[in-house]
Design brief:
The chain folds into three domains: 70 residues, Winged helix-like DNA-binding domain superfamily/Winged helix DNA-binding domain (Arc Repressor Mutant, subunit A), CATH 1.10.10; 108 residues, D-Maltodextrin-Binding Protein, domain 2, CATH 3.40.190.10; 99 residues, D-Maltodextrin-Binding Protein, domain 2, CATH 3.40.190. It is 40% helix and 23% strand. It is elongated. The termini are far apart. 33% of the residues are buried. About 3% of the residues have low confidence. Keywords: DNA-binding, Transcription, Transcription regulation. It holds the Pfam family HTH_1.
Length: 298
């Protein structure tokens, strides 16, 4: 196995898929980084990357090294964290990937509470509307809206949550009441950009037979803010409504959707006591926060 400094540089290039991107993360000159990667490939006598104008893509050997190097990184992060982690508190850095609805309306409260109880812990929330690749170590763990069936992953359902149609009071006053689903066809709809829906569980409007999406975004928080501005009607998480008071749920008897959040971890991290402790705190916090916020809207 190569020394940790070589692996640290390799991990950055593999994750950023470019010398320039990795150079920014590491604060190293890309040319220096390129020489280091060339030296690493020569020492290992195998090509780790396919180089092209588009960047650095991993070869099969590179993907295998990424998995091994990621395991070394996790072990180093977890050094000195044993069975007494609960009493001594968590420390070090943990990166959490999440869809932006969860990241914007739930994780700030949950992670703030965990951080208060564990002042030496550094929590990074990566909010992106896509599926995270834990094999590439884009994050230490991720929240998903469906349970992945491929990959070396450990998945557990954390909590269910509700969604309903909603619109602002100003929009409803200007456009009249909405009495049934058929009425939606004459209203402006707010929702996801259709070709950027990264999970079938998010394709709410297709199942409702609503009209075209007049205002769209790949971001849940942007959709909520468009609805608050009276842009139209859309599907929103009940847990987001306490942060968007001008919005009011409509057609609650006709439309009530239930989805779930899943906590996804790489199988190689299953025995990492530090990450396991954080996962337990995160799961409990999410369940409590969803229940609290949903109770506020009835």
């Amino acid at each position: 196995m190569q020394n940790w400094d070589d692996l640290r540089l390799f991990l950055a290039v593999a994750r950023e898929q470019s010398l320039s991107g990795a150079g920014k993360v590491l604060r190293l000159d890309p040319a220096t980084l390129g020489r280091r990667m060339g030296r690493l490939e020569k020492a290992m006598q195998v090509a780790l990357f396919v180089k092209s104008p588009q960047g650095y893509a991993l070869t099969q050997a590179g993907a295998q090294l990424l998995e091994r190097a990621g395991a070394v990184e996790q072990a180093m992060r977890g050094t000195a964290v044993g069975d007494d982690a609960k009493s001594e508190g968590l420390s070090g850095q943990i990166r959490l990937g999440a869809p932006d609805g969860c990241a914007n309306f739930l994780l700030p409260q949950v992670c703030a509470a965990i951080g208060r109880d564990n002042p030496q812990l550094e929590i990074q929330i990566v909010a992106l509307p896509r599926v995270f690749n834990l094999t590439r170590r884009e994050a230490d763990m991720a929240i998903g809206v469906s349970a992945p069936t491929a990959g070396r992953l450990v998945v557990r359902q954390v909590t269910e949550y509700k969604l309903h149609l909603a619109a602002s009071e100003s929009y409803l006053e200007a456009h009249g009441p909405i009495g049934c689903l058929a009425d939606l066809k004459s209203h402006r709809m707010v929702g996801y950009i259709s070709d950027m829906i990264f999970d079938r569980e998010l394709d709410y409007l297709a199942d409702l037979g609503a009209g075209r999406v007049a205002l769209a975004s790949n971001s849940v928080s942007v959709q909520v803010n468009m609805l608050r501005q009276g842009a139209g009607v859309g599907v929103v998480h009940d847990f987001s409504l306490p942060f968007a008071l001008p919005l009011r749920r409509i057609l609650t008897d006709a439309v009530s959707l239930t989805r779930a959040f899943y906590l996804i971890r790489h199988v190689d991290d299953a025995r990492n006591a530090r990450l396991a402790r954080f996962a337990d705190l995160l799961s409990a916090g999410l369940r409590e926060e969803v229940a609290r916020l949903e109770a506020l809207v009835g």
